[in-house]
Specification:
Number of helices: 21
Shape: elongated
Distance between the termini: 62 Å
Helix content: 55-70%
Structural class: alpha/beta
Radius of gyration: 35 Å
């Protein structure tokens, strides 16, 4: 949040209210979060009214003290002066203490609101379909849950207090000025509309600049996340200079967007401050005329001037927070845009196939067509029937649709046309959660989280015993490695398992899939990161542990799928060939050419 310099003067509420009206949807949703804590807000409102009401008494008492001086005689009633001054001190001290308490209270409310908002965003992220993350950079998503929510937090904890203070102080000061001299109040009939016009014009220009600023920072975060995660590749290809140039470009765009938003936003304060000083000058001149005409006392003029400062000061501060408010609204729009993303629909019933004992493992794809973008079909009229316990291997050139086939099995996406059935039942009638529980899956891109090896292995199965974890690790040929670590199964892995090798990470994910003990298994290049000797051991272990289960194996290394019951060769989204290894070799078609090319 940019630092705001305090300036004296008047700024019109109308422009800010107009802005708030335009953004009532976003601000209304923020208010919805605040209303979860109605009791604290009611207390905050009481403290705001009390604190500012006590502060408003000060100028009136000051005028009484000034009137204790008798013009022309040089006599001062010090008893009256000290009496009113003493009460001023009491009121200001109590007001200051309540103001401090109000600040602490609003920080507490803001903390609770932001915590709830972050939880909602994170929960929504977990409920979004895989396609959302395919379309958005990880860094941009992280920027919304960190930077954008922090911007909203700062606005709620500081700007909201100032807005409440402005409403009460301005209303009270205006009422007191009308009581003291309705004639002098007419000065504001000229200066307030002028401030309104200037503020409305500038805020209209700066609004899109704050949106652009948030978007540019999201793109910068996405670029940084991408380059940090690819450090090894960047260094291997000596791409540091290119990365530096790319960052400089993104950084320059972000800085320029930030500068434009802050520069034009900061012009409101100085321009309105000039008008505020102009109104003070006019009050002084017309006040002097009213004094000479006997319409006002010196003490009343003094009180009116102080109330005019009370009137203009908070509203001028509101002018200064307009830029911050716009920044917060732009950030909130990005947060709510994520919250408005439609989650995965889980309309199916939950009872089957979640019960593993009832699953037979029969899978059927009937005339399935699908693509990630309209007009770009990946799988076209794809049909396949897999019997329970059958091992199906999917081979084919890059981009043929092998991984897309797996995405459809797991219902990461739904087909455009056709149907996918498990045990004769359309998967769209089955809960996504229950369907995915029926599969154990090992991906080419391994994923491990910060935690112990035991926690990572037991991730997919709640309440699993240590003996079962060890048995799965032995079957995956990773137990010996684990026991050689200083803390064994209690060894803490760093983020994404960066303190172990690629092959060891793959073995751990295979052990995790084995531990889940599902009736259907998906292996997407599951042995791609292990050496040939280890691969043979894993194949033997997988052969024992996958008996009686329906298995889908994607492999570029065709030697690993020779023993599959059936091999599907996918080319341009269709099944080009299928059969056993021997049958396909005898056909001397696409599979034969691929296999011979790898042997060469």
């Amino acid at each position: 949040m940019a630092n705001r310099g305090r300036t004296d003067g008047v700024e019109i509420q109308g422009s800010t209210l107009s802005y708030m009206k335009e953004k009532r949807g976003t601000l209304g949703r923020l208010a919805g979060y605040l209303l979860h804590y109605k009791g604290l807000l009611a207390l905050a409102l009481f403290m705001t009214v009390a604190s500012n009401s006590l502060a408003l008494v000060g100028p009136l008492l000051s005028g009484y003290a000034v009137d204790a001086i008798e013009p022309g005689k040089g006599q001062v009633d010090f008893a009256r002066v000290f009496y009113y001054a003493g009460w001023m001190v009491v009121f200001y001290v109590i007001s200051a203490l309540m103001s401090y308490g109000l600040t602490v209270l609003m920080v507490t409310v803001s903390r609770k609101v932001i915590r709830k908002m972050r939880e909602d965003v994170f929960n929504r992220l977990l409920s979004l379909p895989v396609g959302y993350f395919d379309r958005h950079q990880t860094g941009d998503v992280l920027s919304r849950i960190t930077y954008d929510i922090d911007v909203v937090n700062e606005s709620l904890s500081s700007d909201l207090i100032q807005m409440l203070t402005t409403v009460i102080t301005v209303s009270g000061a205006l009422a007191m000025m009308v009581v003291i001299s309705p004639y002098l109040v007419l000065v504001f009939c000229f200066t307030v509309p002028l401030s309104a016009a200037i503020t409305r014009f500038i805020t209209g220009k700066t609004r899109p600049l704050y949106r652009a600023r948030s978007a540019s920072l999201g793109r910068l975060n996405g670029f940084v996340e991408e380059k940090v995660s690819g450090q090894r590749t960047i260094k291997a290809y000596c791409g540091e200079e290119m990365a530096i140039e790319g960052f400089a470009k993104k950084d320059r765009e972000a800085v320029e967007a930030y500068y434009k938003a802050e520069y034009y936003g900061s012009t409101v304060g100085p321009m309105v401050n000039f008008i505020n000083n102009l109104s003070l000058s006019l009050i002084s001149v017309f006040g002097a005329f009213l004094y000479l005409a006997g319409r006002m006392r010196v003490g009343q003029i003094s009180s009116f001037v102080l109330y005019s400062r009370k009137f203009s000061g908070p509203i001028n501060e509101l002018a200064n927070i307009v830029s911050d408010l716009q920044s917060a609204v732009a950030a909130a729009e990005r947060v709510f845009a994520l919250l408005d993303e439609l989650p995965e629909r889980d309309e199916g019933k939950a009872e089957h196939p979640g019960n593993q004992r009832e699953i037979q493992g029969k899978v059927e794809l009937s005339h399935v067509s699908f693509g990630y973008e309209p007009g770009k079909t990946i799988l076209e009229d794809f049909s396949l029937e897999v019997s329970p316990g059958e091992t199906i291997a999917i081979a084919g050139p890059t981009g043929a649709g092998k991984t897309t086939f797996i995405n459809l099995l797991m219902r990461f996406y739904d087909p455009w046309s056709g149907a996918i059935l498990v045990d004769g039942r359309d998967v769209r009638e089955i809960s996504r959660t229950r369907l995915r529980e029926a599969y154990a899956m090992v991906l080419q891109d391994t994923w491990l989280f910060t935690g112990t090896i035991y926690e990572n292995l037991a991730y997919g199965r709640e309440g699993v015993g240590r003996e079962e974890v060890i048995a799965a690790a032995k079957a995956a040929r990773i137990h010996t490695f684990i026991t050689q670590l200083p803390d064994g199964y209690d060894t803490v892995l760093k983020e994404d398992g960066t303190n172990i090798s690629k092959g060891q990470k793959q073995l751990l994910t295979i052990a995790r899939a084995m531990l889940k003990d599902c009736r259907m298994v998906i292996l997407d290049e599951a042995t791609s990161n292990v050496d040939t000797r280890t691969e043979v051991q894993i194949q033997q272990a997988m052969g024992r542990l996958m008996e009686g289960k329906t298995c889908f194996i994607i492999a570029h290394r065709l030697s690993t799928i020779r023993n599959a019951d059936r091999i599907l060769v996918v080319d341009q989204g269709r099944v080009a060939e299928q059969g056993s290894h021997q049958e396909l070799m005898e056909k001397k078609g696409i599979y034969y050419q691929m296999y011979e090319a790898q042997r060469a």
